Structure formats: structure tokens, C-alpha cells
Amino acid sequence: MADYRLGENLTQPRGAVCAATRISTIGNNEFTARDQRRKRRPARMS
Hints:
The chain is mainly alpha-helical. It has one domain (3-38). Helix content is 63%, strand content 0%. The chain is built from three helices and no strands. The two termini are 14 Å apart.
């Protein structure tokens, strides 16, 4: 969904997916980053 935004900053396939999730929840991007490491998606992202 937000891949096009990352395209400008990131050109990595995996990075784009992870970054897309963080951008989606820019409000909780820090909290999301932690879940990403645990391979758990934030409840808000669902």
C-alpha cells in the first residue's frame, strides 16, 4: 500500500515491506518496529 512511498527512500523488497508497515502506523512506528523484530504484527495493523 505504501510501497510507492518507500520506493523513494528504500529500494529493497524486504525493507519495503517492513517499512510499509511502519509507515502505515507512523503514529506507532517505534512500537511497530519492536513487533517487527518479534515477527508479530501490531494489533492496530491487524
